[in-house]
Amino acid sequence: MLNLRLPTIETDQFILRPIQVEDAKDMFEYAGDAENLQFVWFPRHSDPESSKKSIEDFFLTRVDRGIPEAYCVVIKPEMKMIGTVDVHTVRFGDVGEIGYIINKRYWNRGIVSEAVQILISVMFHHCGFSRIEIQHNAENIGSGRVIEKAGFIKEGTYRKRKYEPELGHRSDYHFYAINLDDKIVEERYSKEHYENTIRTKIRP
Q: Using CA atoms, how far apart are residues 69 and 88, in angstroms rounded to an integer?
């Protein structure tokens, strides 16, 4: 059985903690911005109240639906919530799919890469997943770099999978995964690594 409650983790750059209703204002800053949403699958938020409703209906119901709590990224020293990185879908009881979004003001600072790699360790060794999956629009080159840097193994391409209103056409999606027994886990995401590196960053 999966452990669905997540620890708070602090790094030099940011804090990962479960999202809260109080994060709605910061969420709206990116979820109401068309550029930020170019490659995501949820509709643009119209006001902070719609962000609050999203948190209440989509994020805070995760545990009841058998999905781990969603991490938000709180940047230091501002202590501002700038995005989410989480497993949003669980399949077959022990397979999780990751998604993420970060406020465009904080792009190209290595924040997503670091957060995704921490999340992988937490999902394997705290939550108990056996396989972690991820996908991205083939035109979203930056997201592809994050995924490859994390060590995900490309397994294929969904051709013309989804119509993208912002792009005006159907887009291909590349999909990737890491299995718990893959060599990359032994090299970078081992139980020993989690205990010695990630657990030391857990905060009350």
A: 9
Phi, psi for residue 194 in degrees, rounded to 5: -60, -45
**Secondary structure of 178-202 in the HEC alphabet?**
EECCCHHHHHHCCHHHHHHHHHHHE
State the Cα–Cα distance between residues 14 and 76, nearest whole angstrom. Answer: 5
Domain 8-203, CATH: 3.40.630.30
For the chain, the structural domain boundaries read 8-203
Place of tokens 């032994």: 186
- pTM recorded for the entire structure: 0.94
Encode the chain (204 residues) as per-residue pLDDT tens digits.
999 999 999 999 999 999 999 999 999 999 998 888 887 878 889 999 999 999 999 999 999 999 999 999 999 999 999 999 999 999 999 999 999 999 999 999 999 999 999 999 999 999 999 999 999 999 999 999 999 999 999 999 999 998 887 778 999 999 999 999 999 999 999 999 999 999 999 998
